[in-house]
Amino acid sequence: MVSDNYEQNRIWKNIKLNDEPYMICFTKKNESWEVLLTNLIEIWMETLTDETILHKFKTLNPLLNLEAIDWKQLVMDMLNDIPKYIHTYTVELSTYRIELRKDQDFVKSRFSLDLLKEMPQQLWKNVTMPLCLSSMELARRYEILLDLVKQKDEEITEYKAEGAELIRKYIATKPFSEELFHVDTTAPTATDFVKTFQSMFHFYNKISLSTPHVKIEPRISLNGESDNNSPKIDENTFPKSKDEFVQKLKQDKSDKQVYSNIKECEQEAGPSSKAPILKINSTSHRIHKLKKNKKTLNDFIS
Length: 302
What we know:
Blueprint: E1 12-17, E2 20-29, E3 32-38, E4 43-48, H1 50-60, H2 71-80, H3 82-85, E5 86-92, E6 95-104, E7 107-117, H4 120-161, H5 190-207, E8 219-220, E9 226-227, H6 242-269, E10 279-280, E11 287-288, H7 297-301
Antiparallel strand pairs: 1-2, 2-3, 3-4, 4-7, 5-6, 6-7, 8-9, 10-11
């Protein structure tokens, strides 16, 4: 899942306008900047360029010598933390005008934002769609983790049945139950929605970063059957260079050799032998622990 670069570091901050909670965001888009304001119902926006920023700053600070100060850094400081530098605001029809002010040493600088109400498509693009994508990703991860926890419980049960004992008793866990998700919760308040929105966008920023796709093979369940319901990801994971390809071939050859040695040990032991053979799954190479015996795998291999 990949988004535009300017969406990857989008941080929404709380502000109050007309005693109502809003969220505002300042982000870079290509060669310009965007300021977004939303109450999760409507959205207001202004696009700024170097020219418009300079024009606004000159108009609002006519007595400042722009050559003697780093005027652009002053403006960026205010825009990166708008709630901190809000001085006044006014509402005119569908426009929010927000004035910012920063006092630094003997320099008092001002800047203004003129946020125009946008069409619902902008609300969808900048608010609703990222929330939907985050929800879909959370649901996907939930299913993966839920299935994994259930498999771990089955694996632990099998270990115990075969005589395995836990040395560090304090790390023992109880079998998982989905009823843990069905606990009563209090109804969320308006403030909670704001915090939830910010948390979801923080998560969206993480999953939007460009990461290489990983290929996941079909999982083998405990009974040896393939699980077709396992999550599958892009198959674009192949060795990127000749060295990686050679290394992968060597690893596969080594794995096959180990599996071959185990098969030979099983044949030499014979079906009537009481000595337990350590089993290695050829797909996941997980070692299944069997009952304790004086003979070990090294005895057979040597």
